[in-house]
User: Fold this.
Amino acid sequence: MTDPKLLFKNVTLGNITLNNRIGVAPMARISATSEGVATNQMVSYYTSFACGGFGLIITEAIYTDNKYSQGYFNNPGLINKEQIQAWKKVVDSVHQAGAKIFAQIMHAGALSQGNRFIQETIGPSAVQPKGKQMEFYEGKGLYRIPREATQEDITEVINGFVDTAKRAKTAGFDGVEIHGANGYLLDQFLTDYTNKRTDKYGGSTENRVRLLVEVSEAVREAVGEHFTIGIRISQGKINDYNHKWAGKEKDGEIIFGQLGHAGLDFIHVTEYEAWQPAFPKDEDTIVTSSGLDNSNLSLAALAKKYGKLCVIANGHLEDPVKAKEIIEKEEADIITLGKGALANHDWVNKVKKGELLVKFDEEKVLRPDVKIKDFEVLL
Assistant:
């Protein structure tokens, strides 16, 4: 095995310094109270990763308002004082164990399958999401057809992200990650087949990325220049795993280029295998404005090239060799682990010591006799 020491070097992310380049990816959980308050179980869960050596922890998705944003029953929010105080316990414990922690803030949009505030869902257009609700998050049947968001709804969405980012800062988080991936609301606006709008938010890729840019810019203005913020981007979705951007490299140039000027400190990209080409090479390869054929570049590499920001890469990087290589090639600055972290809360410490890593046991996790609150599932 090649020397993985590069993974353990300090790295600057916005205004903070991480003691290594290895983070815990955001993973959906439903272990908060029914009122969306973080629990002592969650304090222990996140602290265990910090004790295991991870330099950065990104939380599960946190809903942003008391209307349409909540995605699942018992997932946490950050919309009131009680929730702020509960998250502060998590943050303080993680800090005491030596790690940094970001709050991932999310609006579920049309993929909401459990919302204590309202039953109706909203989306960019009245398009029924593909697939079925996830039973391991207590959903059942097809997704509802969302109501097309009005301009007033969009303004409320932006305000929700802004207010939640400010509350995250109050709670002591080191930064926030805006969830623009995996098929949730911001990604619904970005996706061609879920966004059929004819206004400034629909049509071209430049228009479809507009809401992601507006949210990013508004959050930056609200929290100030010294608070670290970033966005998570993916092609695949929880309900459409194999989706690829229709414009391929050109879409990547537009999306990452626009986000690179939106006041962000980082872009966090997730793919099934982070090192693989973002788009399979074919006869219709698009030559970008730079004149380069980027058919073999990973999504992380495209984000680095066009976003010109710090890039976090996620996607089956639990092999230390793969993790080191993607950083060594300068396609990413930091890597995050999902299943690898769940199987090894002490992944960093184990790799440092040259110890064997435990393989994630999906069959055990998905046993029907195991209740959802007893495990975590990677999105």
Remarks:
- Residues 236 and 242 are 5 Å apart (CA to CA).
- Residues 151-171 form the longest helix (21 residues).
